[in-house]
Design brief:
This protein has about 170 residues and is an alpha+beta fold. It is about 25% helix and about 25% strand. The structure holds coenzyme A (COA).
Length: about 170
């Protein structure tokens, strides 16, 4: 029987386990996330559903700021598309959906740390020096043990600058 069209939709609590499994399938590219973390941030997840199965995920997080920043930065994270569906535009649809959610908040920029810069370049992201994302390095990368330092990690830092609310 023909598979139904993939559907991009907001996640709900019942998706938490499937999201957890999808993220776990990509240990080299994605930072693991606990079920509790996923549940607490479920309103910051969009999924791709095919025939009732979650086969794609994306989420976002607001990065910390000191003081009363009007336009904090937002990070795209936990982006995954099942191997069987890659190359069909779902990754792009997931990221665009995340960007649309985030845009309503008027962040200064959306950032990502990635091993697939070409994919994000096609979505308008440009490479930025990691030094420009120190808050991300201090709050996330600091606890990563894969490399001696974020500056020797091959992940590429990228940003999409958005229009600020006047
Ligand atoms: C990266 C990933 C999400 C891309 O998903 P996808 O559904 O295959 O991507 P799309 O089909 O939407 O591709 C959109 C465009 O990016 C290109 N692209 C996709 N993956 C690419 C890659 N790894 N390298 C270079 N270009 C890539 C596609 O060719 C396409 O280009 P086009 O518009 O010229 O045709 C997917 O490969 C994945 O889940 N990888 C494992 C987890 C991961 O790396 N997540 C990102 C963490 S930041």
């Amino acid at each position: 029987m023909k598979k139904k069209e993939p559907k991009i939709r907001n996640a709900s609590f019942t998706d938490a386990r499937a999201i957890f499994d999808m993220i776990k399938k990509h240990p080299n590219e994605l930072v693991p996330r606990s079920i509790s973390d996923i549940l607490q941030n479920i309103d910051r997840f969009v999924v791709c559903e095919v025939d009732g199965e979650v086969l794609g995920t994306v989420s976002w997080a607001v990065l910390p700021e000191i003081g009363s920043a009007k336009h904090p930065s937002v990070e795209i994270k936990s982006l995954s598309v099942d191997k069987s569906l890659r190359g069909t535009g779902l990754g792009r649809r997931l990221v665009r959906s995340a960007i649309n959610h985030v845009k309503a908040l008027y962040p200064e920029q959306i950032i990502v740390l990635t091993f697939t810069p070409e994919f994000f370049r096609k979505l308008g992201f440009v490479e930025v020096p990691k030094e420009k994302l120190m808050y991300k390095l201090y709050t996330g990368c600091l606890n990563c043990s894969k490399y001696d330092s974020p500056f020797t990690c091959p992940e590429v830092a990228m940003a999409l600058t958005l229009k600020k609310k006047s």
